[in-house]
Specification:
Order of helices and strands of chain B: HHHHHEHHHHHHHH
Distance between the termini of chain A: 14 Å
CATH architecture of the largest domain in chain A: 2-Layer Sandwich
Largest interface: A-B, 40 and 63 residues
Number of domains of chain A: 2
Order of helices and strands of chain A: HEHEHHHEEEEEEHEEHE
Oligomer: heterodimer
Distance between the termini of chain B: 43 Å
Mean pLDDT of chain A: 92
Number of strands of chain A: 11
Shape of chain B: globular
Number of domains of chain B: 1
Helix content of chain B: 55-70%
Number of strands of chain B: 1
CATH topology of the largest domain in chain A: 60s Ribosomal Protein L30, Chain: A
CATH superfamily of the largest domain in chain A: D-3-phosphoglycerate dehydrogenase, domain 3
């Protein structure tokens, strides 16, 4: 659902809502996969991101997002200098993903300590983004709300168990999407909640024996 | 939010509401937030827009490539033309101002996008200044513009990479035309016609920025987009109607965008970007940017 404030917004550093603000938001989302600023990152730019990204500051915006700068943060202008000064190793490469990939797509491989994750996301225009893949699993995360994504074995009562953890933490579920490739195969859950879940909540979900992995992604718009 | 302006106009008429009020109430319900919170966010956006207009009119900003900058101030201090002293000229100056700030990596409101960010603030704040319209009515107008933009996002696109410039400055012109028509006392039906009149005038407009930079012709397309919006407002308030319904005009923009060659969708492969001068300037300036960074 499109919000008025997506259209009249975001307030952002120029010059491009898709190539600068959207790119920054994708960086912010990828950062969530390792919990904090990645030490190392491989940023693979596809389509228009690859062809015109440099002039739009797409590289600066993604680097800034990975470092936790939001789209209206004027530090984005000098994000590559800050990245170097902080000793962060972010590499930028041009690539060609699938034919049906959105023109503004990036694959981000982020590492921090012994954690490593791969995220694919697209910038849809007007600063709106969607994460389409995490660690090889297809997802759909917009960053419009705080989100928990998880992969679980297909066991009975799994949704109820997770809903209980969330309600015990007084988190209100806004949307819940459940999918699986086949009966008995991995179940994939994308849960949007109104308040930011704590790390304890994420760890409680990770602690369930049938949960294979779980991430918490921040709300990055609005 | 609505997926059809015809539905929104029908609901507004049935309930005796303005489109902006309808937009605010719908957004409040969608998001589970009070209307005043939505208006507060729009008011903050308006303040950023005012700041960008003022900043750009100073005339000392240039883009990282140096291709654009300083032109907004010329409309304030340069020699008069046939529109000297009119709101029209002031609106052009404001559109250039915001877009010059954007090109210089300054802070703007993407409305609907950064590349088309000059049109809406220029038209709304320029006409509000000329007619002595208070801030709260401009905030309402932003809600109306948001409703129109949301419909365009759902039915067509707001991305130059997907739909060309008709999806950025074209959509912005449609949003500005509709919103200003309401702000100046137009009915919901007139808002629909103003939006259609502006959007039809930008159909087929390609996105062909030199070097892919949001600079040339983007800065100037915001000024000409604002001019098209003003033409649409003038016609709609005079009672001119457009026979193709506004939703169908928006659908047409989407259809043209989907069929537009990729060269004309922000890739710098065609249009002005591919002219001999366009290629030369892009090469020189991009080289400059790389050398400095």
């Amino acid at each position: 659902m499109v919000s008025l404030l997506d259209i009249i917004g975001p307030v952002m550093v120029g010059p491009s809502s898709s190539h600068t603000a959207g790119a920054c938001r994708l960086g912010l989302l990828a950062r969530c996969l390792v919990g904090d600023t990645p030490d190392r990152a491989l940023v693979e730019l596809h389509g228009s991101f690859a062809r015109t990204g440099e002039g739009h500051g797409t590289d600066k915006a993604i680097a800034g997002g990975l470092m936790g700068f939001r789209p209206d943060d004027e530090r984005l202008r000098t994000a590559l200098d800050i990245m170097e000064a902080e000793g962060l190793e972010y590499r930028f490469e041009k690539t060609t993903l699938d034919d049906d990939a959105h023109p503004n797509t990036v694959r981000l491989t982020v590492e921090r300590g012994n954690r490593k994750s791969v995220m694919v996301g697209s910038s849809l225009g007007a600063g709106r983004v969607v994460v389409t893949e995490i660690d090889g699993y297809p997802v759909s995360v917009t960053g419009n709300l705080h989100t928990i994504v998880l992969v679980a074995e297909d066991v009975k009562g799994s949704v109820a168990r997770i809903a209980t953890i969330l309600s015990d933490a007084e988190l209100n579920i806004a949307t819940l999407k459940l999918s699986r490739k086949e009966r008995g195969g991995d179940a994939f859950m994308v849960i949007e909640v109104d308040e930011r879940p704590t790390e304890d909540v994420r760890d409680a979900i990770r602690g369930l024996p049938w949960v294979k992995w779980a991430f918490r992604l921040d709300k990055v718009s609005g | 939010m609505y997926r059809s302006l015809a539905d929104a106009i029908a609901d507004a008429e049935a309930r005796g509401l303005t489109l902006s009020r309808l937009a605010l109430e719908t957004e409040a319900k969608d998001q589970g937030r009070p209307v005043e919170e939505i208006r507060d966010a729009l008011r903050r956006a308006l303040h950023v827009m005012n700041g960008a207009v003022a900043r750009g009119l100073v005339g000392d900003l240039f883009s990282s490539s140096g291709l654009v900058g300083g032109d907004a101030a010329k409309l304030r201090t340069g020699p008069p033309g046939p529109l000297a002293g009119t709101a029209f000229r002031d609106v052009l100056a404001r559109a250039l101002a915001v877009q010059e700030v954007n090109a210089a990596m300054g802070v703007i409101v993407a409305a609907p996008t950064a590349g088309g960010a000059g049109v809406l603030p220029a038209v709304l704040t320029g006409l509000a200044a000329a007619q002595g319209i208070d801030e709260e009515r401009v905030v309402d107008a932003l809600a109306c513009a948001g409703l129109i933009g949301a419909v365009v996002a759902e039915r067509a696109s707001l991305s130059g990479a997907e739909g060309g410039c008709q999806a950025e400055t074209g959509a912005a012109a449609g949003m500005a035309a509709g919103a200003a028509t309401e702000m100046l006392g137009g009915t919901p039906a007139q808002v629909g016609h103003a939006t259609a009149l502006a959007q039809q005038g930008t159909l087929g407009l390609v996105c062909d920025p030199l070097g892919g930079l949001v600079e040339l012709p983007c800065v100037f397309r915001n000024a000409t987009g604002a001019a098209i919006a003003l033409a649409a407002i003038e016609m709609a308030l005079a009672g001119v109607t457009f026979a193709i319904p506004v939703d169908e005009v928006i659908d047409t923009m989407g259809e043209i965008g989907r069929n537009m060659d990729v060269r004309y969708r922000e890739t710098a492969g065609g249009g002005l970007a591919a002219t001999p001068t366009g290629r030369r300037l892009a090469k020189e300036r991009l080289y400059d940017i790389k050398r400095r960074s």
